[in-house]
Write a structure and sequence with these properties.
By secondary structure, this protein is of the alpha+beta class. It has two helices and four strands, in the order βαββαβ. It has one domain (4-74): Alpha-Beta Plaits, CATH 3.30.70. The chain has helices at 27-31, 54-66; strands spanning 16-18, 36-39, 44-47, 72-74. The strands form two sheets. It has a two-stranded antiparallel ribbon. Strands 2-3 form a two-stranded antiparallel ribbon.
Length: 80
């Protein structure tokens, strides 16, 4: 599970985030291209836009579930 305290500062505010475990595999950017982008400075993905539709929400959830290193988090699932 992604660590809220390790999230990249480049993530836009909102429900989903990417943490420092990201290995820049491109899965999230392929699965939800409207919502994830690559940071060329850091060689990792980040949430560039929070979901704006039901389809984008499903795409972000799919990217989170498929992430090979569990680097995508969902604030609705984070235990505080």
């Amino acid at each position: 599970m992604a660590d809220l305290e390790q999230r990249w500062p480049t993530n836009v505010d909102g429900r989903f985030f990417v943490d420092r475990e990201c290995i820049d595999c491109d899965l999230c950017r392929s699965t939800a291209p409207r919502n994830f982008a690559r940071s060329d400075d850091g060689g990792h993905s980040f949430v560039s836009r929070q979901p704006q539709s039901e389809q984008e929400l499903r795409d972000c959830e799919q990217a989170m579930n498929d992430c090979p290193v569990d680097a995508i988090g969902d604030l609705e699932e984070v235990q505080v």
